[in-house]
Amino acid sequence: MRAAISISGLRKTFGSTRALDGLDLSVTTGEVHGFLGPNGAGKTTTIRVLLGLLRADAGDMRVLGADPWRDAVDLHRRLAYVPGEVSLWPNLTGGEIIDLVMRLRGRADGKRRDELVERFDLDPTKKSRTYSKGNRQKVALVAGLASDVELLLLDEPTSGLDPLMQEQFQECIREVRAEGRTVLLSSHILAEVEALCHRVSIVRRGRTVETGALDDLRHLTRTSIRAETIKPARDLGQLAGVHNAIVDNGRVQLDVDTHELDTVLRHISALGVRSLTSQPPTLDELFLRHYGEVPEPSP
Amino acid sequence: MSRYVATPRLIWFTLRRDRVRIPVWILGIGLTVLGSVASFKSSYPTAADRQTRAAIVDNAVVKLFTGPGYGLTHYTFGAMTANELLPMTALAVALMNIFLVVRHTRAEEESERAELLGATAVGRLAPTTAALSVVFGADLALGVLLTLGLPTSLHDLSPEGSLAFAAALVGVGFVFGAVALLAAQLAVSARGALGVSSMGLGAWYLLAAFGNMTGIGALSWLSPFGWAVEMRAYVDDRWWPLALALTTTIALVAVAARVASHRDLGAGLIADRPGPPNAARWLDDPLGLAFRLQRNSVLWWSVSLAFIGAVYGSITEQAGKLYHHVGSLERYSAHIGASNAIDEYRALTLYIAVLVAGGFAVQAALRPRGEESAARADPVLSTAVSRSRWAGGHVLIALCGGVAALFLIGLGMGAADAISVGDAGQLPRTIGAALAYTPALWVLSGFAFALFGLVPRATGAAWLVLGGVAFVGFFGPLLQLPHWIYELSPMEHVPRLPVASFSLPPLAVLLLIAVALLAAGFGGLRRRDVATA
Predict the structure, then answer these.
(1) Which domains are present in chain A?
(2) Residue where one domain finishes, among candidates B262, B277, B308
(3) Which pLDDT score, from 0 to 100, does residue A297 have?
(4) Vertex A153, ends B279 and A12: CA angle to 5°?
(5) Which of A77, A285, B45, B263 has the fewest CB atoms within 10 Å, i.e. the most exposed one?
(6) What pLDDT, on the 0 to 100 scale, is given for residue B65?
(7) Is A104 in Cβ contact with B380 (below 8 Å)?
(8) Nearest C-alpha of chain B: how many angstroms from A223?
């Protein structure tokens, strides 16, 4: 598997602010890679470095085998970018902007464009100053998704979309994935990342703090269990790997580290199980464990 | 009366928000008038001077800016004030009313701030009433300033005439405040409301101007500008045309209030027009985009510059005669080494028109900075477009637009001049003289672009430099500035045709400087980060 994006030790400072502080990122060709982090963690800065819009202070990086700063123009024929804050030329219509951006990229596909305009329910005849945030986002999405490029860099692409359109977006990304193209998806919407991504990288204060396959990362997390048992479960809270246990006679509620799950379940079933529900570890939990405990300074 | 609940509080709030903006408008307009009036006495000390001036005003093209010209046979300072200052001041007052009313009505609704207020215990018509009260209050404040200030600035101006002058302006202000109020009810965007109001402004102004120019008085009577002028301040002091303005105001406000109390918040009657669903074939490269973005600006600059040229050119003959009556101009003549009054006038007015074109040269060259700050560079630069190609499109528009601007100045001025003096040869002569400024204009663009490439945060300095160039051009000869200061201004290196003779070396040097500045700009742009804020 070739790496579509490989970054190591990326640093970037703006004046006295250190935006990126030794960030690493590796995206394999053909995967949808989730890029997570709170506001101000450096996600947008990373993407703008990958586009050659910002010059890295230090670090090695290759995008599709090329240097994003030196080979920017050639590289940009092979990738598409959808920004999170979309600003458009106010007196051009959405349709004009989509056509323009596709032509500038050098890969115009009129049929796919019209199909996407239809799917995202966008009125291409409106001047872009009259578009809402969601509609501006759709313009950028159509312009990005309509080109047949190898790599998509998406920076919180669904932040202004309604749930219906978010679903439509997920559908598009699944198609892209099926075609074997690569996606770097920066997002706040964890359900979306869970639904689409093979692997994720989590950044915080300009560094990568966690990276790997979603399934692997789940092992680092806890499963929540609620059970009613025949015998009272007194000593469950003392077991290794059990957290936040609330035991009330025959009712028990606890979180358990995934690698201790087997031991704990045996223990519960020995008490005689009346009912049992378990909740799988969610990305939210993973996310909160990295960010929840320490309050972030506001950007 | 629940529709007006909380109006006083909103008036206070509006005043609080515009505590700087409104005084700036009032003082800006008021002091310009008072300052102009104060200079009359030294510029036209004798009755003979004023009669010479009256001869200039009695010209078809000049009447576009002055009104029909009354009291010309006995041209007093009062008649001079009313003829030469009233129409342009009325235009400024109309603009003040339009901008302020739209700002506090439709712009508020569009920004959705109005909903914040509308959801509280505020009457449906209260925001509109408050906005109109504040703006009409501003008109009245300007009226008081002028009524008291005019006789103080120039003792020859009668108090009654000054009151009529001020009342004429207040009348125009009221009408256009009401026009903007109605436009704000009809259009859905602030831009649309400004557009509708400005169309009304333009149509009415041209109607009056055309009436004045042709002497068809009936046309002027259809326009609020005509009513203001027909009050004949200082000459006849007629009051009844004011009634026309007030009646029109009341009618427009009544219609606006009716629409306002029946429509939804945020809704309007004139929707933004839809545009093409697909981009035109030529909109496929950075130059196409730059052209599309700057098209309207280029068009407006072109029309304005050709017009300015034509106005200057049309009075060449009369102005040449008057030229030596104005003492302060002798220093300009000495500065450019002129001996022929008409040619002096041509060289000086061409220089002034080119300075105006300098505004275009700087604005167009700084356009990529505006795009960058608004985060609209990213979508282009993340495609297969290099930074140089992206910015190059705008540079090409600035350079070619600059040449076009000079050509049009030459065309307008030359054609009008040729008609004025009856010599067709003036047309090619003037166009050539104007085009000689090309390298100087390119240096101005180049400097702005170099700032953009090297120190993007400091691009505002390009305007300061243009201001400095204008200062040296206008006041240098009067203040007798040291020689080296002139050397710094690119405009001073251009041979002042037709007074001076053509000389290539200074133009070649300017051209080299322009090329070097542009190269520095491109070089800097390739190396730096693309900013978004």
Answers:
(1) 3-217 (3.40.50.300), 222-280 (3.30.70.260)
(2) B262
(3) 44
(4) 120
(5) B45
(6) 76
(7) yes
(8) 42
Q: How far is B384 from chain A (nearest CA, A)?
A: 5
So what's the pLDDT on residue B533?
57
pLDDT digits (tens, 9 = 90+) for A187-242: 877 778 888 998 999 898 899 988 888 877 766 667 888 889 888 877 777 888 88
Chain A: nearest CA to B304, how far in angstroms? 22
Is position B22 within any domain? Answer: yes
Question: Domain check: are B30 and B101 in the same one?
Answer: yes
B248 & B293 share domain? no
Look up the domain containing B86 and give its range: 8-262
Does residue B274 belong to any structural domain of this protein?
Answer: no
Residues B299 and B233 in one domain: no
Given CB atoms, is A51 within the 8 Å cutoff of chain B? yes
Interchain proximity B275–A100, CB inside 8 Å: no
B269-301 confidence digits (pLDDT tens): 666 678 899 998 888 899 999 999 988 888 888
Residue of chain B minimizing CA distance to A147 = B383
Q: For residues B109 and B166, state if they share a domain.
A: yes
Distance from CA of B190 to the nearest CA of A (A): 11
Q: Are residues B218 and B326 in the same domain?
A: no
Write down the H helix ranges in B105-189: 106-110, 113-118, 126-153, 159-186
Nearest to B275 among A76, A93, A103 (CB): A93
- Separation CA B387–CA B401 (nearest Å): 21
Q: What is the pLDDT of residue B337?
A: 63
Does residue B381 sit at the A interface (CB-CB below 8 Å)? Answer: yes
Q: Do A104 and B285 touch (CB under 8 A)?
A: yes
Q: Give the pLDDT confidence of B351-387 residue by residue, as tens digits.
A: 989 998 999 999 999 999 999 998 999 999 999 999 9
Q: How many domains does the structure of chain B reveal?
A: 2
Confidence tier at B140 by pLDDT (50, 70, 90): very high
Which long-range contacts (C-beta less than 8 Å, at least 24 apart) are formed by B306-310? Answer: B306/B408, B306/B409, B306/B411, B306/B412, B307/B412, B308/B353, B308/B356, B308/B409, B308/B412, B309/B353, B309/B408, B309/B409, B309/B410, B309/B411, B309/B412, B309/B413, B309/B414, B309/B416, B309/B434, B310/B61, B310/B412, B310/B413, B310/B415, B310/B416
pTM value? Answer: 0.76
- Distance between alpha carbon A286 and the CA centroid of its chain, in Å? 13
Q: Which of A18, A6, A15, A14 is nearest to A207 (CA)?
A: A18
- Do residue B211 and residue B322 come from a single domain? no
Question: Are B236 and B332 part of one and the same domain?
Answer: no
Q: Report if residue B278 sits inside a domain.
A: no
Least confident of A175-179, A258-262, B179-183, B220-224: A258-262
- pLDDT recorded at residue A90: 84
Q: Does B530 touch chain A (CB under 8 A)?
A: yes
A53–B378 C-beta distance less than 8 A = yes
Contact list in A for residue B386 (CB cut-off 8 A) is 72-73
Q: Which residues contact A234 (CB under 8 A, 6 or more apart)?
A: A247
Q: Which residues contact A277 (CB under 8 A, 6 or more apart)?
A: A225, A226, A227
Reading the block at residue A1, the tokens are 């598997």
Choose the mutation target among B382, B457, B527 for the interface with A, i.e. most A CBs under 10 Å: B382
Question: In this complex, do A100 and B191 lie within 8 Å of one another by their Cβ atoms?
Answer: no
Q: Please report the residues numbered 87 through 106 in chain A whose beta carbons come closer than 8 angstroms to any beta carbon of chain B.
A: 87-89, 91-93, 95-101, 103-106
Domain for residue B339, yes or no? yes
Q: Say if residues B61 and B80 touch (Cβ distance below 8 Å).
A: no
| Together in a domain, B173 and B316 | no
Cβ <8 Å between B275 and A96? yes
Task: Say if the Cβ atoms of A105 and B284 lie within 8 Å.
Answer: no
CB pairs below 8 Å between A and B: how many?
A: 115
